[in-house]
Amino acid sequence: MNNSQPWQKYPLIRKPLEEVNQLIQATIRTPYSDLQDALLEMASNGGKYLRPSLLILSAQIASKKETVSKQIIQLASSIEILHMASLIHDDIIDDSDERRGKISIQARFGKDTAVYAGDLLFTHFFDLILNAISEQDYMIKNAHTMHHLLAGELGQMAERFNLSQDFNDYLTNVKGKTAALFRLAAEEGSHFGNGDEQTTQALASFGENLGIAFQIVDDILDYTGGKHLNKPTLEDLTTGVYSLPLLLALSKKELREQLVPLLEKKRQMSKNDIEQIQKILLNSSVIDETHALAEQYTNRALANLAQLPQTNATVLLKKMTRKLVNRTL
Hints:
Structural class: mainly alpha
Strand order of the largest sheet: 1-2
CATH class of the largest domain: Mainly Alpha
Number of strands: 2
Helix content: over 70%
Largest sheet: 2 strands, antiparallel
Distance between the termini: 28 Å
Mean pLDDT: 90
């Protein structure tokens, strides 16, 4: 296990997440050496396990118990494996050389191996949920979540280099590509932790609001975080994916006039062009405005938690929510 795993500092979820880590390592075994090396390297590369943590804490809140069942461990593992698969395919699409501050699977092992690695993880995801779930409703929810993930990615792809997108377009795509998995983790954890309908719906809404806030902060970090947070600065901008700070800037006439001539160069933008775009945004109010939107969705998430029993798991989930949104900039 990677000693840099941030969840090791939280006793309430440390043991369950160690079990998740072990199950993932066991699940992704394959006789194909390239795939095996690629997947094991990714599994040990310092993932934050946010989605498994959310599922486990939601189960603890719903059950009012700090122990979790084998079923919850399986579901938490399935969520992380689905997330890993989506990251691998994202890196292929974006031709990204880095993932979690290290060389990506597609850069190190080639695109063929990366495609197969992602596909193999999707099959492991289905294997785990088939073993863990007998209820048709939640099998359908998992299938619908995969649909939402794909719809979000396709929506983002359709908007590449589109200078006319607005916040509603952005929000639709984020609800799919990021928030859907957060929502599923919280909802599934509550349901299979024997939570009542009110608790499960509150946690589902919490997951969605947290997922939106998380993505908005990620967008801010693309402009302000740089290598400090293992995020190559403005990596999305060069592929035509316009994140929220840029969309807010494009909605302002004086900033739009400065930005459009640079953005119209598309993939021909130079490093100097990209640095100029970054400077325009950092010298404006849009980063603060984007922060305000992140806070808005964070407050919605915290309001969802306020409806729940105030257990140790609830307290930790509040703490983690604030920590995620207040990541170092």
